[in-house]
Design brief:
Layout: H1 2-31, H2 44-47, H3 49-53, H4 56-78, H5 81-88, H6 91-102, H7 109-129, H8 140-161, H9 166-198, H10 200-204, H11 207-227, H12 232-254, H13 263-284, H14 287-299
Helix pairs in contact: 1-4, 1-5, 1-6, 5-7, 6-7, 6-12, 7-12, 7-13, 8-9, 9-11, 9-12, 12-13
Length: about 300
């Protein structure tokens, strides 16, 4: 029991560190664009991606991310999904001081309580409802429908984010990234199953394999945009909430996942919702988060239409 818990917390720390490093790389890339030409576009980070790829700190962020995946895989090898998955939500608790360090303001007690409430709410939801199992074979027609719904939702969120304040903009972009990562996980599941049952040739011609690249790259771009346009803490919090929620919805739609019924699970979901609402309200009104958001919006990739 001890080893998977330690590995799970290690993975959470590495994922948070990776997000902080990627945010730093985005800010450096934005600084290399003094005329702020990229900021006139809806997703400025796209226009800075070539500069971003040349930065050592960005490469370090991805090496850290890879180490996080290795720690997560090891944790899942020694422990169950039900044990490890909720532990990964604690990356928000690691991201909070990393984000605050950028503005040299230590998180207040309210910030810690808000982050703890969000982490606890997501962990409770994952434990009670098995929010992202994606078990069994997917129904291909319904999976395709889910892809269409996800694409429309992401486009709608991107449109809704335009001309919003930095905090709301970053949160909406982070929600889009969370959906993309959930879809990417589903495509990996389907492609892996296809590889084992149908072979390499059939899998190479199968559409889910190509969607892995599309959804992963989309999540990568949107994640960088969220980190570099507002608050890192809020972006990580929103992704931590949206990713499992989208995965659970996908499981219901395309993987025949049956939610657990009964007073216990329903009560857990209700408590989870209260914790998420309280935590989100606390972070949104945190002076440290607002200072971080204003600083990032000025120095980063928050769009300023010209």
């Amino acid at each position: 029991m001890v080893l998977p818990v330690v590995l799970g917390f290690t993975a959470a720390f590495l994922f948070a560190a990776s997000a902080a490093l990627q945010r730093r790389a985005v800010l450096h890339a934005a600084h290399s664009d003094p005329a702020r030409k990229a900021a006139t576009h809806r997703l400025p980070v796209l226009w800075l991606f070539r500069r971003l790829l040349r930065q050592r700190v960005w490469l370090l962020g991805w090496i850290t991310n890879l180490c996080g995946f290795c720690s997560q895989a090891a944790a899942l090898h020694f422990g169950s999904v039900a044990l490890v998955q909720p532990l990964l939500v604690t990356q928000l608790l690691f991201a909070l001081p990393m984000a605050s360090a950028a503005v040299r303001q230590w998180p207040s007690l309210r910030d810690w309580l808000s982050a703890g409430a969000i982490s606890g709410g997501v962990a409770l939801f994952l434990s009670a409802e098995r929010a992202a199992p994606l078990e069994g074979a997917a129904d291909r027609s319904r999976l395709l429908l889910a892809v269409g719904v996800a694409a429309v939702t992401v486009i709608a969120l991107l449109q809704l984010a335009q001309r919003r304040g930095p905090l709301a903009y970053s949160a909406l972009i982070a929600a889009s990234a969370g959906i993309c990562y959930a879809m990417s996980a589903a495509m990996i599941k389907v492609t892996t199953d296809s590889l084992l049952t149908r072979g390499v040739a059939a899998t190479a011609l199968d559409w889910p394999g190509y969607l892995i690249a599309v959804t992963t790259f989309s999540g990568l771009v949107l994640g960088h945009q969220a980190y570099g346009s507002g608050s890192l803490s809020v972006a990580v919090a929103v992704m931590s909430i949206v990713n499992p929620a989208a995965s659970f919805a996908l499981g219901l739609l395309a993987f025949d996942v049956t939610p657990v019924a009964g007073p216990g699970p329903l009560a857990a979901v209700a408590v989870s919702g209260v914790l998420l609402a309280v935590g989100a309200f606390g972070l949104a009104h945190s002076p440290a988060v607002r200072l971080e958001t204003r600083t990032t919006a000025k120095q980063g990739v928050y769009p300023h239409p010209g």
